[in-house]
Fold this protein.
Amino acid sequence: MVIPDEIRKCVGFVGYQRADGNVFFAGTAFFVGRKTDAAPDRVFTYAITAKHVISAITGKGITAVLLRLNLKSGGARWIRTLAKDWLSHPSDATVDVAVTYFGFDEALDHKFFPLEGAATMPVIAKERIDVGDEVFLSGLFAPHAGRNSNIPIIRVGNIAAMPHEKVSTKLGDIDAYLVEARSIGGLSGSPVFANVSGVRHGVLSLTDAPQIYLLGLMHGHFDSEFLPLDISEDVSGKAGINMGIGIVVPVEKIIEVINQPAFRNPEKAAEDQLQKQNLPKMDAGVAG
C-alpha cells in the first residue's frame, strides 16, 4: 500500500518547554478541515491531539503547548499554543480528544484532512468497514523524530475489534476500536485511517485514487500489565511490554468535540457574515 504524502503532511509533533529551556516531545497532533456552508472555498481548520497529552503537559505546571511543524523552505519551527485553548468533550470526560483552532501559515509545509472523509457510522455501513480491514497511522517516533525537520512514521495494521462494547482505560470505560497496530507514547494523538482501496468483499474498486477514511485518534495501547494508556514522564520513558493492540477513539467523538458551541457559535457568526457579503446586489439605476 502506498501512503499519500498528504497523510504525513497532516501530522505535526506536540511538545513542551521546561523552565530550564529544554524542549521535549509529548505526542502527535494532526489537522482537519471543515468546509463552510456559506462559501465552499472557505475552511475552518483545527489541530487535534489526545486529551491526555495536553493534561500531561499542564500537569507539569506548563501553560503552553508547542507544535513542531515543517517548513516549505526546509527545517521545522516550534509554534506556541495555549493549553487553555485546547478544548475537550463538553459532556464526556472519558473522551480522549483535545481540539484547538489552527490557522495555516503559508510558510508551513502541512495540509489538513477534510472532515468529509471521516469514517462515520453511515460510512462504516456503506463501505462495510469491519474486523480485518486495513488501517494505518502516522505520527511521532521519538527516537527518530528528525533533527532538522519532522519525520512522521507510518504504522500499518488492521481492525481487531469494532466498538461494540466499551474498553476499560485509565480514563474510564470508552468507546473505541481495537487495532492490530503497535502504539507507543509518541503516537498518542495520531490520526488512524481505514484503507478501503483495492479488492474488498469480492469487489474490485473502480478508481485508482486511494480510498481512505479517518477512523479516529490513537489513544494508547495494552501492555503486559493490562494498563491501556501510555502516559509517561516523556515519550522515551520506560513502559511495560507492548501487547501490540492499539486503542482508537472513533472519529465521531472528534466531531462531537468540534461541534460544541465554543467552536460552532463563532463559526456560524462567520458564516452569516460571509452570506451577507455574497448576497446578490442590485444593478445601479440609469439616470433619466
Summary: The CA atoms of residues 70 and 76 lie 4 Å apart.
